[in-house]
Amino acid sequence: MNFKALAARFALVVSCGLLTATPAAAQFWQCAPYARAISGIDIRGNANTWWGQAAGRYERGHAPKEGAVLAFEATRRMRVGHVATVSKVVSEREVLLTHANWSRPGRIETDVRAIDVSAAGDWSLVRVWYGPQGSLGTSAYPANGFIYSGRAPKAGTLAPVEMVKAPSETQLANLDAQAASGAAL
Question: Secondary structure of 70-90 in the HEC alphabet?
Answer without folding.
Answer: EEECCCCCCCCCEEEEEEEEE
